[in-house]
Design a protein that fits this description.
Layout: H1 4-10, H2 23-35, H3 39-42, E1 50-54, E2 61-66, H4 71-82
Antiparallel strand pairs: 1-2
């Protein structure tokens, strides 16, 4: 993820952590997801270790990808998502 974050930033991607560790972190995450109006797009994802790509315009799920994927594959997914508003 160290290499992915700068690439995402250059593409205008905002990374938002959905931390499900405990009630407090879950509440904080929900608040931020609500502020961005994307919580409904990520509600079905309760797993950890995934990146969920949500359109900033439509607020709909574009795709998800594991953080275990190679960096170039994750960056490729970000670029594809950029072309899918």
């Amino acid at each position: 993820m160290e290499e992915v974050a700068p690439a995402g930033k250059s593409l205008g991607v905002e990374f938002v952590t959905n931390d499900l560790t405990n009630k407090s972190t879950t509440a904080s995450s929900r608040l931020r997801l609500d502020q961005l109006d994307v919580r409904s797009a990520v509600l079905s994802y309760q797993a950890t270790g995934i990146i969920i790509l949500v359109s900033n315009q439509s607020k709909k799920l574009i795709r998800s990808i594991s953080v275990a994927e190679p960096t170039n594959k994750i960056i490729g997914a970000l670029r594809e998502a950029e072309n899918n508003p």
